[in-house]
Amino acid sequence: MRSQAEQTQVLTGGKARPAASRVPAPSRLGRYELLHQLGKGAMGVVYRARDPRINREVALKAITLTEEFEAEELEQARVRFFREAEMAGRLSHPHIVTIYDAGEDGGVAYIAMELLRGQHLVEYTSPTRLLPPAIAIEIVARLAEALHYAHQNQVVHRDIKPANIMFDAPSGELKITDFGIARLTDSGRTRTGVVLGTPSFMSPEQLQGRNVTGSSDLFSLAVTLFQLLTGQLPFRSDSMPGLMMKIAQEPHPRACALNPALPAGLDAFFDRALAKEPAERFETGASFALALRDLNRPCKG
Fold this sequence. Notes:
By secondary structure, the protein is of the alpha+beta class.
């Protein structure tokens, strides 16, 4: 059983509540025929579904807005949901899941997206199932380039973690999912409301309720890389206050000490990628990816 600090949380006004998924199991949503449930996330359920209009199978994420938001927040949440779905739907990148459609049926909002092959990267975070370092590093470099593209389009994911990344080893297909809950970095809007994320992967500024930019996504991606390479998280605690203190104040472990087979220079990379202040990190996903690909020498014992 995961500790409180490792569970996905929904933070509202600085207080955490356990994520809930209470979406009913109808036979269809809108025009989509629901075939079976694929899984549950922090907010909603994902189904394998079929679009009978064009006979295409899709992944359909369904969120019961009335159960996730208070009555006074409901309309704002509905507007935000469709605005963010529209923005995410404009993203076209080989490593970002394609969104086809969004709608609402009986108080259940849904997003239809491409049905992906492979497994979540969570499958490769166990110490006994780690990918070869060169492959893990290249995967994360590609993800950083995808985030660079999203950030250029004013979309911040806010919940980058292995469970939101699909990888199909035989084909090499790699996709970031769940952009439907992204918040937009539109300086003309007030950033209030729900902050969604998994605490162990969140940046100091996100945990503290400060302004979140693309730099926060890159921090979360660095945490993901650390786990893929070492089989453990850089910041761990059995309590939320303890985890928040470690992420905000304490240094991360030396990756090469945990796995001496890692490339030389990786510790220096993590020092920058996991810096407490956004200004001290890599400026863009492109520079993050470039720095990773420059690491090609094994650590010395």
